[in-house]
Design goal:
The chain is an alpha+beta fold and 661 residues long. Among the domains are: 63 residues, no CATH class; 56 residues, no CATH class; 35 residues; 148 residues, Heat Shock Protein 90, CATH 3.30.565. The strands form two sheets. The chain has a five-stranded mixed beta sheet, with helices on one face. A hairpin with a 3-residue loop joins strand 4 and strand 5. Helix 7 runs antiparallel to helix 8 and helix 12 packs antiparallel against helix 13. The radius of gyration is 45 Å and the shape is elongated.
Amino acid sequence: MGLFPRRATFAALFLLLLPSLSAQDSLRTLIRNSAGMVRFEWMYRLAQEIGPDSLAEAQTLLHQARELAEASGDYGAIARTCLAEGDLLVQHQRGLEDRQQAINQYLEAITNCQQIGDRACLAEGHFKAGRGYIVFQESEQALLNLFKALSLYQGLRDTAGMVAANAYLGFVFQMTGAPEEAISYETEALELARLSGADSMQAFILLNIGTFHLEREEYPVAESYLQEALAVGGDHMTVRDRVGTLNRLGAALRAQHKYPEARARFAQALQVAKLGQDDYARADTYLELATLHEQQKAYEQAMAYLDSSLNLAKAGGYDQLFLANYRVYQNVLLEMGNYDQFRYVRERYESLRDSIEGLELRRSLLRQEILYQKRQQEDALRIQAAELAAGRVQLFSAVVVGILLLVLALVLYRQYQHKRKINLRLEEQVKARTRELAEANEELDTFAYRTAHDFRGPVARLMGLCNLLLDDPTGPVAATYMDMLKRESVGMDHMLRRFMDVNNIKRIEPREAPVVLRQMVTEVLEDLRDEEFPMDAQLEIDIEPEATVRTHPDLLKVILKNIIGNALVYRQGKGTHEVHIMARTDKNTVRIRVRDNGIGIHPNVAPRIFEMFYRGTEQSTGLGLGLYATHLAADKLGAEVRYVTENEHETEFSVVFPYKG
């Protein structure tokens, strides 16, 4: 019946046809009319829908959805609820407690993702946990989780994930005072973001790089990066990122004494913060404006902006921003000469600083204790699981051992039965290999003897011609001797090529490639013409222009060259010499035929024409290796070479090999 029960499906279709119902009302109705994991999906969607407006209701829905997922044992669904709740807590940002809860949700999501081996879910969990630790300035935990996320994103080839992980790693290294590592990761992130076209991430990375140069007092460089961040980010940037970029750009301009431009940027930032209803961004902007007016000696205005920033920081619990306001307050009071108020504010600042740092330390210790307890619980669960698994393994091992003993007995019995048959087969193989080796040795001996014999004559002639030239190097017949030397050298080169062709055929490993048959025949005829074969025969080529097969081109060329070459050479003394070359393919085979009306093959010599160094006629001027090489090449291709002689003159050779189109 599919994933959705009939009742829920009809309800969904019915609600889609009611325009009077809102999306949230429709989802609530679907939740009431469904059960199990179908209800989970509707609850999850409703929580995502109402989350931006109502955190409490969204959390309640996610907790109920999680109970359904736990009841069904769906670890992936549990992880989804944890990630969703963590995102909602970060989105609302009610304080550090929400941030800590968000991190706990992400860590729980990681645990559930590990249960099912979901690497994408693991990467998201580690990334968001690392980003959460940045808020608490726990750089070690942030780096640990972000490095794990980066490694997982790289394995998944997730470019967007790699961009984000590199960007936040750079931010953490910048926060911990490691500028070289920071700029390295931010640059890597920027290159990936530009390649993938991720405008929102480019803006965030450019903001980080601009902030890095701002802290190093490289103000023109910082201004350039921050301007680019605003241009690239556009509407993609969050309210806080846009305000932060504008404020840092204003600070860079302020440091260069470009006060009107800086004031314009701060005013723009304040407008964005107010429209986005982000109190932290407003407080940060008021602080920057106060610093601007302090530098311009407008102390009354600076004090007014500091009061506004302090009120927002105090109401929102932004401790670090609160302390930053007090630092600027001290400077303004000191420059105004209000020493009594200055001493009071300084004491207040030091007291607040010690209190906040102590609170941060206690929070950090509490988080470490929670993590330690959680790890202890996980270790205890792993030990219990290992003990249960060990018991099951022991029982399973006993059963397996018994089965293996029975199988072993059966195998030994069968081995005993087949031992004689195996020995007989081995003996037959040894005899066959011995015969093959003896034939190979005999062939090698013949090859070595004939090679030496065939080379002896040309070498002797070369030596004689050299001696004649030495006796009379400038005589009237010296040119004739040189021409004879050249012909003998060419002849020896031809012999060496034939010997090398035979050796190469034996050593070559067949490889398949597309071969156009008509083009191959044309290339063979061109090669034969270059080698001064007689080309005055009446040639007829009956091959389709596009006929193509898959075979080894070099081996097929050896076969065709020898067969067609013989058909051109061995002709009768009179009459028209005709050579007909044909090729046909069917579903299984390719057949190439070469027919001529030459001298034919005498029945007495026919059985030996494929032997090495055998010459079947007195007209032969070669080495007796042509048809031998043809036979070797055909064996390599899995082909068969056949011949037919009719009327003692007409001869037809055919090559048949498997067709692979």
